[in-house]
Amino acid sequence: MVRNILALTGSGVRDWLIQRVTALLILAYVITLVTYVVQHAPLTYAAWHQFFACHVVKIVTTLILLSVVWHAWIGMWTVFTDYIKPRMLRRVLTVSVIIYLFYNLVWGLDLVWSI
Questions:
Q1: 85: part of which helix (H) or strand (E)?
Q2: Is the dihedral of CA 8, 104, 79, 63 positive or negative?
Q3: How far apart are CA 65 and CA 80, in angstroms?
Q4: How far is CA 88 from CA 28, 37, 94, in A?
Q5: pTM for this predicted structure
Q6: Cβ 71 vs Cβ 19: under 8 Å
Q7: 39 domain residue, yes or no
Q8: Measured in Å, how far apart are the chain's first and last C-alpha atoms?
Q9: What is the pLDDT of residues 2-34, one digit of tens each?
Q10: Is the previous residue joined to 42 through a cis bond, with omega within 30 degrees of 0?
Q11: Which domain holds residue 102?
């Protein structure tokens, strides 16, 4: 059996399950943020800064950033392997997505942990 080194788990069922779990985590995080914004309306910069200065929020936000990257990678890898047939184009797109996701992860971590 040929194994693709860029495949996340090597199992479609596991990839499907990971994507559903990460989607639920992201949804829970978004609901929490929306609830916070609604409860603290009108939201000030000081309140928002204080919320994200809490270490628990920083850790949870970091986990959600990792979930977003993981979720996006599985989705894009699946789309590329299913629909992009020219091997060279697929490789260029895959590397581009990896660079883009890594950049956004580093940028997000810098934002979260610089508060």
A1: none
A2: positive
A3: 22
A4: 38, 45, 10
A5: 0.85
A6: yes
A7: yes
A8: 48
A9: 455 555 566 789 999 999 999 999 999 999 999
A10: yes
A11: 12-113
Task: Give domain status of residue 4, yes or no.
Answer: no
Which residue, among 27, 99, 37, 31, has the nearest Cα to 67 in the 3D structure?
27
Tokens representing residue 19 in the block:
């994507």
User: Tell me, what CATH number does 76's domain have?
Assistant: 1.20.1300.10
What would the pLDDT profile of 42-77 be if each residue is shown by its tens digit? 989 999 999 999 999 999 999 999 999 999 999 999
Give the integer Cα–Cα distance in Å for 105 and 95: 15
| Residue 57 to residues 63, 77, 108, Cα–Cα distance (Å) | 10, 30, 13
Per the structure, how many domains does the chain have?
Answer: 1
The pair of structure tokens assigned to 20 is 């559903």
Query: Does the residue 108 lie in any domain?
Result: yes
Give the list of residues 6+ apart from residue 49 with CB closer than 8 angstroms, or none: 115
Helix (H) or strand (E) holding 15: helix 12-39
Is residue 1 included in any domain, yes or no?
Answer: no
